[in-house]
Amino acid sequence: MARKIGSRYTAHQILGRGSAGTVWLGEGPEGPVAIKLLREDLASDQELVGRFVQERTALLSLDHARVVGVHDLVVDGNDLALVMDLVRGTDLRTRLERERRLAPEAAVAVVADVAEGLAAAHAAQIVHRDVKPENILLDMQGPLGPGGAHPALLTDFGVAKLIDTPRRTRATKIIGTPDYLAPEIIEGLPPRAAVDIYALATVLYELLAGFTPFGGGHPGAILRRHVTETVVPLPGIPDELWQLLIQCLAKAPASRLRASEMAARLRELLPMLAGMAPLDVDEPEQQAPDQPEPAPAEPTAPAAPRSGAVPLVPGAASADAANRDTHTSMRVPAPDELAGGARGTARAPRATGAPRPGSARNRHASRRRRVALGVAGVVLAAAAGGGIWAATSSGSDGSPPTDNTNSAPAAP
Ligand SMILES: Nc1ncnc2c1ncn2[C@@H]1O[C@H](COP(=O)(O)OP(=O)(O)OP(=O)(O)O)[C@@H](O)[C@H]1O
């Protein structure tokens, strides 16, 4: 059913849902658009609306081929909406779930595109803060690039910052997606451009390996690994690519490449990667569910419902089951909680077929890991007497999260 958004736009059909709102296929004076309608509880927050208007100029001015352009910000009664370029295709998470791993050439081409978009944003002093496969859209109508990759565009600029208002998230809380969080954020430093490089390098690793370098288990374990552990080389990865990857995953933000350098170095590697098959690696052993992480010293968020994504900010209405299970809001861990502890958590990837003790091969690793994460959160909630670090899962009841192949369909 069509719905008016402000005086200039009509929303026709839902393309997908995220934790901050719903994305609609819509129509504006200049043709088709995508309209992200923020959740009602966010839209009714006057402070957030104020920031929304304040950020207007910065968001509207970001104009780059690798960034999903924002055309308009609409504040109309209870509606708060971002009007964006419509990308006819799908998001990178959906592609990754379908293919499990990408060939190195395609993975590098996608990430080089995104790095170019980030370079433009960083030049305009805009930090994305939530780079992850869900926020990378693949334009199926664009020309095929190296490795058969469709052009990739980064979306959701500014949304994390808009929502991260002081009243919603006190200084001691982290907002983000645990697998992609740079160590300095976990240590409580303000997010600068280098956090996007770390997150994008994590995405590159994930595209190559089929799993993120520090993911798996409870959010607290993931955060600790970001701060204390080093990535283990992927079997079969060309050394030049590995060197670039570890530089961008450096714990010290100043040691990471800048976005423009990352894009240029990745493009230089493309000829060498042409025709290379996806890496043959298996996900490392998952943490056994009967070994819960130590509980945080004090619970900071209400217990999460067993199904549906946990709200982006504590106290917000739970998102429905169709939502992505992507965000976590949690307090900054104390130094001793980050220090590690008796149980080592290194996640060494193995060449496929190499023996390992225990469980069967992990297929659909990222979804399974997200499910396990939600379950761990619920278990911990019980252990901590009802409070948890808000963990995320859209399938913690064991049901698979709804597939989101729902960007505007590509024209035949
Ligand atoms: N500009 C766009 N054009 C076409 N489809 C889009 C556009 N922006 C988002 N979508 C689709 O809408 C869906 C929801 O997007 P949204 O940005 O709200 O959530 P998300 O990024 O998946 O999750 P979260 O907001 O929790 O990080 C996604 O599946 C995405 O593919």
UniProtKB/TrEMBL annotation:
Polar residues bias locations: 397-412
Organism: Streptomyces beihaiensis
Region (Disordered): 282-368, 389-412
InterPro entries in alphabetical order: Kinase-like_dom_sf, Prot_kinase_dom, Ser/Thr_kinase_AS
Protein name, as recorded: non-specific serine/threonine protein kinase
Listed Low complexity bias regions: 344-360
Keywords: ATP-binding, Kinase, Membrane, Nucleotide-binding, Serine/threonine-protein kinase, Transferase, Transmembrane, Transmembrane helix
Superkingdom of this protein's organism: Bacteria
SMART domains, alphabetized: S_TKc
UniProt-listed Enzyme Commission number(s): 2.7.11.1
PANTHER family in UniProt: MITOGEN-ACTIVATED PROTEIN KINASE KINASE KINASE 20-RELATED (PTHR43289), SERINE_THREONINE-PROTEIN KINASE NEKL-3 (PTHR43289:SF6)
Stretches assigned to the Protein kinase domain: 9-270
